[in-house]
Amino acid sequence: MTLVSLSIALHVISIVIWVGGMIFAHQFLRPAAAKQLEPPVRLTLWVGVFSRFFPIVWITIILIPLTGYYMLFHLFGGFAGAPVYIHLMNGIGTLMILIYLHVYFAPFKRLKKFVAAQTWPEAGKQLNMIRSLVGLNMSLGLIVIAIAAGGRYF
């Protein structure tokens, strides 16, 4: 296996884990939890879910740019030789990472604090903010996947 093929594999697996995790959480777990669980149980569940998922996201947001830039410079010689779809993936991916960093260091941090203090209305506000930002990131991730799959043919 060459370093390029390893980079492609790690890049794609990382994206599948991150975007797939967001899709599962946002589209399937959230509606079921909201329908079946009272706020204290639901909010505590989300702290547990995010506490398990976010460390994996940290790994993916390191691997995705690392492997992406390796491929960019190895296959295209850098940004100047890269087609537009590569620039789009880079820009949107960078935005996604920035959104994740905001989620992790702001509303998730506050969510944990409010759940620990059993301040449920404030915790609910933080979860709603996270939900909105994850929905945005999920949408951006799907756009990046579409660009990656068909960008060279646009």
Per DSSP, the total helix count is 5
Global shape = elongated
Model regions low in confidence, pLDDT < 50 over at least 5 residues: none
Tally of DSSP β-strands: 0
> Approximately how much helix is present in the residues?
over 70%
**What is the SS-derived class?**
mainly alpha
N-to-C SSE string, H for helix and E for strand = HHHHH
Instruction: Provide the residue-averaged pLDDT.
Output: 97
Q: What about the largest sheet? A: none
Total of domains: 1
Question: What value does the Rg take, in angstroms?
Answer: 18 Å
N→C terminal distance: 30 Å
Strand content: under 5%
Task: Please tell me about this protein's structure.
- It is a single chain.
- With 154 residues, this protein is mainly α.
- 88% of the residues lie in helices and 0% in strands.
- The chain has helices at residues 3-36, 39-76, 84-105, 107-116, 120-150.
- It is elongated.
- The model has no long low-confidence stretch (mean pLDDT 97).
Descriptive terms for the model:
elongated; single chain; 154 residues; mainly alpha
Secondary-structure blueprint:
Elements: H1 3-36, H2 39-76, H3 84-105, H4 107-116, H5 120-150
